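Table S2 (text version). Query chain:
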Amino acid sequence: MPASSPPLSCLIAFVAACSAACIEGYQVGQNPLDTDTAGSDSDDSGAEPTPGVCGDGVLDEGEACDDGDDDPGDGCDLECRRTAVVEWIRTDRGGAEQGARALDVAVDPTGRIVVVGGESEAEGAERGLVLVLDPGGEVVWRRTHAASDNSLFVDVEVDAGGRIFVAGGEAGVTHATNVVRGFGPAAEELWTFRETLPKPFGQTRALAVGPDGLYSVSNESRLDDSIQLVVRRHDPLTGIAIWQSLDGEPTKEYAADIVVSGARLAVVGTTVPDGQVPRPLVASFALDGTLVASDIDEQVEGEWYGMAPIGPAGDLMLAGYVRHQGAIGGDAVLRRVDAANQEVWTFYDDDASELFLNVAVRADETLVVTGAGRVGGSYDLYTYTRRFAGDGATIWSSQHLDAGPDMNEQGAGVAFGPGFMVAVGLWWEDVGKPSGQGDQLNLWVRRFADD
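Corresponding structure-token output:
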């Protein structure tokens, strides 16, 4: 697989850094905008209220919900906290039943769900995967990327006409290749863009559809061992690169996502100045590829993994993790910034070692994030999905902790559809290794009700 595959590799580092102090149960963090709604069945007698019993079907004081069962997929979990309502889950081991993983998702104008990632062939090679499902989860079509090298798709965008654009890379022994491909709604192959690099590291990390074209951002290794963050504008009809951003000073910069926001392109990721710890990075480019600003948060260790525009004024939602000075585990972080990259509000999940990998925003400014967390002091991982209002108030939080003994899963991509939300990711059976390497990966797609 390409060497720059953050959704899995970041979890390896994340798990290794977490200590036994990480906790399984989720508690509402110390954030002023967090809200839990609860009723009360206490009387006005002045006597001390009888402690409520979660699971008795009675909404007691301090309970956000109580439906009388412990099914976390029906909107209320076993600790009487609001969760997502799961409408269906689909799992897939790949066409050859040798393993698969999902790394991003988009929804087309008809409500079809477009999943990208990779699947393994019988001989062990991994091929980039495009899987299109109908709104009920049934397969419409699937395509794998034919190449002599291993390949993987890590990002997908769909335009208003239903064209599907996917990004990723191929990894050879001595070289790497950036790949962007275009497909029509009926699986017709439109074009393929390829850029081969002289070292075995490089991958097109993300795409953005804008009014003037299709934009990509890549991480590209150079002969001097620097990593260059490169933005390109592509012709959506042919895939040809019309321009690419100019080379800057040799750096260690890694892009994770790109969006079009007003008259700028915003890129998030991380930078590692002078071989130190990673620092969150937000870079802004003009629509001709000129670098306008590069904002690095020097105060914390961390990375931005996902981003989405929000509101009419050019605000952005940033999702990732931070590790504060002296801390061992990381905290999932979600931040809203304005067009000048100034903080509007920030949510820190500081009660468990978790991170956010992707964020999606709806037109009414409600949003959903997904990622992963670590179960207790073990190497087991669970998917962490959380719904917010545009002002940072929590609507619900879901942790999928019931995959079973020695099972792991993580969320990687999330999107809104007409009347639903959908998240994708991967799961594997644990054999005592923190990364799942050597175990068969399986992709999952989970559709939530848009409550």
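Notes on Table S2: The helical segments are 6-17. DSSP finds one helix and 29 strands in the chain.
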